[in-house]
C-alpha cells in the first residue's frame, strides 16, 4: 500500500463518526442531558444537552431510530441508536411517556402535565387523535393484539383503556393512589401503585383488581426480562428491585438497590441497568449473584436504554 493511501485511510478512521457497540443511554431529567456510557469500560463517554427535561425513550419497531421524549422542551429527538447522532427533532406537545403499538402502526404519547394522550401514525409521526383525559396521564401499555392502549392516570387513581380502532376511551378502572408504570402480562395488567406499597393486578375483562403484589413504598414499574422468564419490579422509596414469577406472580427474590431504582434495561449478558433517581447514578445489577455497581451520571436519571451489539 502506498504511503498517501495509507495516510488517507488513517485520516478517514480518525474523522469518521464514532459508533460504539452496547451504548447505554441514560436520560438525566434534572439537568436536561443524555449520558452515553460504554458498557465495556463502564465510563461515560459523552453527555448530550437536551432542551429541558428528558424522561422516557423508545426504539422504533424497525430498530432504526431511538426516540427520546423531552417533555419540558416539547419535542422528540430522533437519534441513531448506534452512535447517538441526532437525525431530526420533532415538535410534540409535552411528551412524557411513549410507546409503539405491537403491530407497529401507532405511537402513543402521554402528556403528564397537559392531561392529554396523543396518537400518532408511526410511519410519519403525523397526529391522528388527541384525547383530553383525567389528571396526569403517566405510562402506557398495550395488549399483544394492539386492540387497546392502557394509560395510567396518576391524579385520579385509575387506568384508562383506549380502543385503538376508534381511538376513543373505552373504560376506566380504579387501581389505587398514584398509579405509574403499567405492563401487560398473560392477560392481566400489572400496575405500579406509587402512592402505596404494591403492584395491582388488574383484569381488563372484569376491570377489577384481582390481587396485589407487595413490593415496598413507591412501587413504580415492572419490566419483563428479555426471555420473559422473570419480571422485575422497582420500588423507588424503599429502594429495592423484586423478581417475580410471571406465571404465579409470586416474588422469588428481592435486591436492595440504594438510590431510588426507577427504569430498567437489560444488556446482552443479562445484567440489569437501572436508573437511581435520588443519587445521580445508574446501577448495574447482576441478578444471578446480586452484585451491584454504580456509575455517576447527571441529576435525576430516569429512562435507560441499552443498544444491542450489531449482528447479534
UniProtKB/TrEMBL annotation:
<dbReference type="InterPro" id="IPR011045">
    <property type="entry name" value="N2O_reductase_N"/>
</dbReference>
<dbReference type="InterPro" id="IPR051200">
    <property type="entry name" value="Host-pathogen_enzymatic-act"/>
</dbReference>
<dbReference type="InterPro" id="IPR048433">
    <property type="entry name" value="YNCE-like_beta-prop"/>
</dbReference>
<feature type="domain" description="YNCE-like beta-propeller">
    <location>
        <begin position="12"/>
        <end position="306"/>
    </location>
</feature>
<feature type="signal peptide">
    <location>
        <begin position="1"/>
        <end position="21"/>
    </location>
</feature>
<dbReference type="Pfam" id="PF21783">
    <property type="entry name" value="YNCE"/>
</dbReference>
<keyword id="KW-0732">Signal</keyword>
<dbReference type="InterPro" id="IPR015943">
    <property type="entry name" value="WD40/YVTN_repeat-like_dom_sf"/>
</dbReference>
<protein>
    <submittedName>
        <fullName>Beta-propeller fold lactonase family protein</fullName>
    </submittedName>
</protein>
Amino acid at each position: 500500500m502506498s504511503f498517501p493511501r495509507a495516510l488517507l485511510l488513517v485520516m478517514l478512521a480518525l474523522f469518521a463518526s464514532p459508533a460504539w457497540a452496547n451504548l447505554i443511554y441514560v436520560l438525566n431529567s434534572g439537568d436536561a442531558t443524555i449520558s452515553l456510557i460504554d458498557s465495556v469500560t463502564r465510563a461515560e463517554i459523552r453527555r448530550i444537552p437536551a432542551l429541558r427535561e428528558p424522561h422516557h425513550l423508545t426504539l422504533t419497531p424497525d430498530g432504526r431510530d431511538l426516540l427520546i421524549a423531552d417533555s419540558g422542551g416539547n419535542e422528540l429527538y430522533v437519534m441513531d441508536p448506534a452512535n447517538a447522532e441526532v437525525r431530526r427533532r420533532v415538535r410534540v406537545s409535552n411528551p412524557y411517556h411513549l410507546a409503539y403499538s405491537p403491530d407497529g402502526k401507532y405511537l402513543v404519547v402521554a402528556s403528564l402535565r397537559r392531561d392529554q394522550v396523543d396518537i400518532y401514525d408511526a410511519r410519519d409521526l403525523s397526529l391522528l387523535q388527541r384525547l383530553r383525559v383525567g389528571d396526569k396521564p403517566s405510562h402506557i401499555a398495550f395488549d399483544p393484539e394492539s386492540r387497546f392502549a392502557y394509560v395510567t392516570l396518576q391524579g385520579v387513581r385509575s387506568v384508562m383503556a383506549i380502543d385503538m380502532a376508534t381511538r376513543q376511551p373505552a373504560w376506566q378502572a380504579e387501581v389505587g393512589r398514584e398509579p405509574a408504570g403499567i405492563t401487560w402480562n398473560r392477560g392481566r395488567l400489572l400496575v405500579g401503585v406509587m402512592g402505596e406499597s404494591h403492584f395491582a393486578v388488574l383484569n381488563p375483562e372484569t376491570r377489577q383488581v384481582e390481587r396485589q403484589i407487595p413490593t415496598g413504598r413507591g412501587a413504580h414499574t415492572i419490566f419483563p426480562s428479555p426471555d420473559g422468564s422473570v419480571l422485575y419490579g422497582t420500588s423507588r422509596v424503599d429502594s429495592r428491585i423484586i423478581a417475580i414469577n410471571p406465571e404465579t406472580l409470586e416474588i422469588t427474590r428481592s435486591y436492595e438497590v440504594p438510590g431510588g431504582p426507577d427504569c430498567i434495561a437489560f444488556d446482552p449478558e443479562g445484567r440489569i441497568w437501572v436508573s437511581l433517581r435520588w443519587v445521580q447514578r445508574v446501577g448495574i445489577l447482576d441478578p444471578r449473584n446480586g452484585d451491584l455497581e454504580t456509575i455517576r451520571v447527571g441529576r435525576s436519571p430516569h429512562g435507560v436504554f441499552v443498544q444491542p451489539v450489531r449482528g447479534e
